[in-house]
Task: inverse folding
């Protein structure tokens, strides 16, 4: 073992060392710098921004001017209650409170301080009791991350790529003093690059993200999530930062709460575009069928977890079917899905059965029964609410997508307090170590609501940066 | 810090050191001794047997002679599927497989080798697809633990009480070599007793049980479970053994999966006798009412988790009500509950309302509506199935119990493999360390089925003992 004590000589020295360049890490870096610290951000990949760069760029905040202008009544208390309900009340109340109380300020900060532009709309995502979700102008997290990069540059903060955390280094008293890292690291070769020792005179901020793509780590908690399950995340979202925090005694919480999306297709990588068709057309207006039996497997409008579990339980990708009336009713176009081949069109249901090797008679009988439920406005099999305007599935062309769940978000992580300090197995802060973003746990409990991740990352990332800057006993 | 390296001189030396004297620890001790090792069992409390001693003594096993004699078809595959379904398939399949394949043998072992006597009946507990549950003659785990004590004595195994694990000691290579403990420990004074160093020449077996009564540890995972929530367990079920395994790098799984019983009363300690009335009379034939509103809060026959969550969400103990016809229909007597005062009898519903400060009109209207559902055999509010023979709630005396959930079992723990070796954060075995029973995780996933804990403890405890005996590089 190399040990984890500080070296006799540091290769580099900074006040605050931030690990990870997504929302949380960049927010921490900016605040730490503004508070007077020298700061370096270490990013293991060649490209910066982590998973934040490819997310959909939707952020939740209560009590904003945009809500007021739209006549929407909202408050931190409302959002608190929504997050606690979704989280099955496993969330740490104090962390949720901090997130909702500081959400509107973090939103203004992105707009007024960073210069992020948002679409002129306020959306209501699933599980939110009112519209409070704001979408960046390019519908991507890159709009925020890009502005953060610019701010780093303006502030003179060093952002170093291909530097991978190897070991958190602690002194005799257990205080984190810096990191051993690999400089010139080439993903995924663990022994690539050269070892460097980087001192954090004040603190280390861990912002290494979730572990959606760490198959050994995630299968310990949920053995279903083996290599047959893709992820909506960048491939580099692995658990080494979280493991390091656990190794030095950080307390992990909610690790087995891993969110799967039921709307993803095995016929494209990551999130893709298939969810546009699945979520907005096939689930509300069509059916989801197990091709091995030709039968429906779930209420197509049940929550994410129920639907994803149902598909996984069949052991094979399932087929979602809608007819052209469903598409019309949704008011959407799916040309991009057809063009990519993720959604396929068929002249009749027999062709659907043949193409996907679905037993024909059971499948046709499933559609007949479903059409009966649509007419009677009562789904006697699965209790799916019949959405207004749903028509029987009988107007060609029929459009289909294969669906197989992908890992979307890992709610679990290392427990932090409201100052973003990492807590040990007895809930005492580990001196010199802060964490924020998906690597931290306790904010979302059993289930994260859509659009709350950016809020979480920005609010607690900013806190981590401010606290790290003042938090150390600089020598 | 005292450090966790072996001392220059050991106070005691054994081949195998077992921590904990419940089912798992005793089974490990017996097998290790039979395999030729010298063995000591360390128990922190004055009394031995831990929580195993007070449990209900029901064990599940498939494919037994008792089943065959009763004409019951069963197999390890059946039990595997039942456990995986209950566990939401978060269970480690290989561990479940080991438990179900060795369950019948472990059951025979208790009967033929230990001499445990069972009632002549095979019961079907909730979640089991067939009857496969066997109850000890005195309806208590003490019947098994008692025979195990006798076997330890016959085999000359030392069982030492009031010796509390403090630190797992490791050599330079990370191999567990023994323990630092406190001898003469007086619960709960952590600094009581004197420090001793006990060498484990071959291995340490951790069998320290669950953490149902460890409030700081359990609230990290589920903040609702604060000091206002009791437990059905012995007060000494705390997490120090699990924390030690985590401290040296063991991988915890499913820590946030904590099972609450909805059938317990705040008017008595631990499991008590109230569940006899709640489970078999009030839930099937009566109603469960929130005294703050006078309204029902849940389908009284929903699963444990749904019911416990519903009661917790009200913020106060709820009142379950049945009339005398419900009691008659159940075929049970509740004199013991009335005598203890856990269940109270009232001449009319108005008196019930007054006694529990339930708003009278809403409460009477709740009962009237419920009686309508009974007559129409359809519960339009909560969808509770109307059990055959249910009568409207109108025949005095009315019997009531206050209910408030208690922590019953902690599914999470340190991950082990099928040899009961403790796995580290990269899923490599930690040399010299085994675990079994409730401190280990991965067997039950999201939810343990009733009667599967004894099976788990005995099967994996025996394996841990056999492996520990051969597992070491004895010097």
Result:
């Amino acid at each position: 073992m190399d040990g984890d004590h500080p070296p006799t000589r540091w290769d580099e020295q900074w006040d605050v060392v931030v690990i990870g360049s997504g929302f949380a890490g960049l927010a921490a870096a900016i605040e730490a710098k503004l508070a007077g610290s020298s700061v370096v951000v270490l990013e293991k990949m060649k490209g910066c921004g982590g998973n934040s760069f490819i997310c959909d760029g939707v952020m939740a905040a209560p009590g904003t001017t945009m809500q007021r202008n739209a006549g929407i009544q909202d408050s931190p208390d409302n959002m608190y209650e929504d997050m606690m309900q979704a989280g099955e009340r496993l969330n740490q109340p104090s962390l949720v409170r901090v997130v909702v109380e500081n959400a509107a300020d973090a939103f203004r900060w992105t707009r007024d301080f960073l210069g992020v532009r948002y679409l002129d709309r306020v959306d209501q995502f699933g599980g939110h009791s009112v519209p409070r979700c704001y979408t960046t102008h390019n519908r991507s997290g890159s709009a925020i991350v890009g502005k953060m990069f610019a701010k780093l540059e303006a502030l003179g903060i060093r952002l170093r790529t291909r530097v991978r955390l190897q070991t958190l280094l602690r002194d005799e008293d257990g205080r984190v003093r810096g990191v051993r890292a690999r400089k010139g690291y080439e993903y995924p070769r663990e022994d690539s690059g050269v070892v460097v020792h980087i001192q954090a005179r004040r603190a280390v901020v861990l912002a290494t993200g979730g572990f959606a793509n760490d198959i050994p780590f995630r299968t310990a908690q949920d053995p279903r999530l083996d290599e047959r399950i893709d992820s909506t995340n960048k491939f580099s979202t692995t658990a080494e930062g979280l493991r390091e925090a656990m190794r030095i005694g950080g307390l992990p919480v909610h690790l087995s709460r891993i969110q799967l999306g039921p709307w993803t297709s095995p016929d494209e990588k990551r999130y893709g575009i298939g969810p546009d068709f699945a979520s907005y057309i096939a689930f509300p207006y069509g059916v989801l069928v197990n091709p091995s039996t030709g039968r429906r497997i779930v209420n197509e409008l049940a929550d994410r977890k129920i639907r994803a579990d149902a598909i996984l339980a069949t052991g094979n990708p399932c087929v979602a079917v809608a007819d052209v009336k469903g598409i019309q009713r949704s008011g959407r176009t799916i040309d991009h899905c057809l063009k990519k081949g993720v959604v396929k069109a068929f002249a009749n249901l027999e062709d659907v059965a043949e193409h996907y090797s679905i037993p024909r008679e059971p499948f046709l009988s499933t559609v007949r029964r479903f059409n009966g439920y649509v007419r009677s406005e009562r789904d006697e099999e699965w209790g799916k609410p019949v959405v207004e305007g749903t028509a029987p599935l009988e107007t060609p062309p029929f459009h289909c997508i294969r669906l197989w769940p992908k890992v979307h978000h890992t709610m679990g992580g290392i427990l932090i307090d409201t100052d973003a300090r990492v807590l040990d197995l007895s809930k005492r802060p580990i001196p010199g170590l802060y964490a924020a973003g998906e690597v931290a746990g306790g904010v979302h409990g059993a289930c994260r609501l859509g659009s709350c991740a950016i809020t979480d990352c920005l609010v607690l990332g900013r806190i981590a940066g401010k606290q790290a800057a003042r938090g150390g006993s600089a020598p």
